[in-house]
């Protein structure tokens, strides 16, 4: 299989897993599985409109989906033998990535993303910030509900990895934002490369290391 076809096929798989994991319309059964049983009265229509609608408007625009592919390649390269079992986890790096760029568009006052108006220009900044933040946490439903029957050590390692790399992403983004606001004559190429290592490299690193964790690589 040609590499472009390989990427395209894995992109299709990730899209299928996203649809299975996070429905376009959130109903009571899904919400109670994700959030636990409501103590009072659940307004599923509002939750769906404020989360699923903007998130799926964003996800449906496409994307290369190469981070999940990197996760699977890393898993197989490091000796993983049960690729099919871990396909549901392809949503983890993909949702983290999409959440980060939805928020990034607000921080950068961007107008277009993947050929359409940015989410905050369609739904408002408040909805876009909340939906972007939700994508940081949505994949963890797979962990705290443990739908893949992972052992405790593997779950802890995934939580640790995600916490570290998302903090690095935020640090890199903070550097980038402030550099554009203030005169930064002290900056060197090394400073810039460190910002890129944090901001741009975080989710690529996360994807590769996630594959290693799932393969139980030493």
Structure commentary:
The chain is mostly helical. It has a single domain, classed as Farnesyl Diphosphate Synthase, CATH 1.10.600. The chain is built from 11 helices and 2 strands, in the order H-H-H-H-H-E-E-H-H-H-H-H-H. Strands 1-2 form a two-stranded antiparallel ribbon. Helix 9 crosses helix 10 and helix 9 (152-181) runs antiparallel to helix 11 (202-214).
List the helices and strands and how they pair.
Layout: H1 3-21, H2 28-35, H3 44-59, H4 66-77, H5 91-107, E1 112-113, E2 116-117, H6 119-123, H7 125-137, H8 141-144, H9 152-181, H10 189-199, H11 202-214
Antiparallel strand pairs: 1-2
Helix content: 55-70%
How many angstroms separate the termini? 30 Å
Beta-strand percentage? under 5%
Our Rg estimate from Cα atoms comes to 18 Å
- Strand order, biggest sheet? 1-2
Low-confidence stretches: none
Structural class: mainly alpha
Mean pLDDT: 96
What is the approximate shape?
A: globular
CATH class: Mainly Alpha
* Tally of helical runs: 11
- CATH-level-2 architecture: Orthogonal Bundle
CATH structural fold name? Farnesyl Diphosphate Synthase
Instruction: Encode the helix/strand succession as letters.
Output: HHHHHEEHHHHHH
According to DSSP, the number of beta strands is 2
Number of domains: 1
Give a short account of the largest sheet. 2 strands, antiparallel
Q: Which superfamily, in CATH terms, is the homologous superfamily?
A: Farnesyl Diphosphate Synthase
